[in-house]
Amino acid sequence: MSHPPLTLLARRYLDIVEGLKTATANSAIRSHLFRLLKPELDRDESIRNKIAAARVPVSGNLDEFRAVLQEIDDKVKVGSTDKCGADDQPEQEALGPDWRPPPINPATGYRTLPSWVAQPYIRPTPVSTEVGGNEDFVSAAAATLDGSRPASPTPATNMSSPCVSTAPTACPSVAAMRCPTRACLTHCRQIRAVAQGMDPNDAAAKAASGELEGYGCEAHEEKFAAKRLKMQEKKKAQTEARRMKRVKNVEHKAAERAARVRKEERAARDGAKMEVDDEEAHFSMGM
Ligand SMILES: [Zn+2]
Ligand SMILES: [Zn+2]
Fold it and tell me: Cα of 193 to ligand 2 centre, how many Å?
């Protein structure tokens, strides 16, 4: 059988679940059935909802799941004109045992199969962002420290280029891919500050001490802000983790103390009881 009904595969899956020594989570069964029955579920949302609601009772039988499979079988046998209007759906009985899958459609390269037979899930082709979709722009001509304006943006090549700053020595950093200044963060800010009229020496000093925040290109400042946000979040998470650890410690100590008190109380009670038992023993022995 090259194209068995989906429900046949689903039943075999349920048989396996029933044969297992350990219990299978409802969520795991649902997840398998959602995948196995996808073509049918895409046509009839109500079946998806029924699987989502089905569960395994304490007794461990899978009747609720099997009932949904039976419903699919009944539906495809009588043919369906469901809400999706898929009345072109071929019935299982109408097709009969001699049914053979249709030939491959040369336009798509796939067979168009009825929704109730096992078939591959064909994902839509992803739209590539690699070819012709490059959003990165960098200036073609290098801007320089004397403040000459960067040239208008041209599409970037995917090659990394060194930072344009050469004064007093060549900057060892790589220019950011999306930076129109074609510089590293520090020099992007410095070059732009000078372009805005800041004294070059002043700009160099401030750039070195990290005082030119906000002067960089949009790409650089965005990246910088995102990075700082991430650092802050990390710090916050660490602080919270430390706080939780302290709370846990206090709780643990309190629990230990309570256990000790209970133990001491029990010991005291048992001691008292023992004395009573002794007295009773003496009493019954007539002493
Ligand atoms: Zn930049
Ligand atoms: Zn640089």
Answer: 14
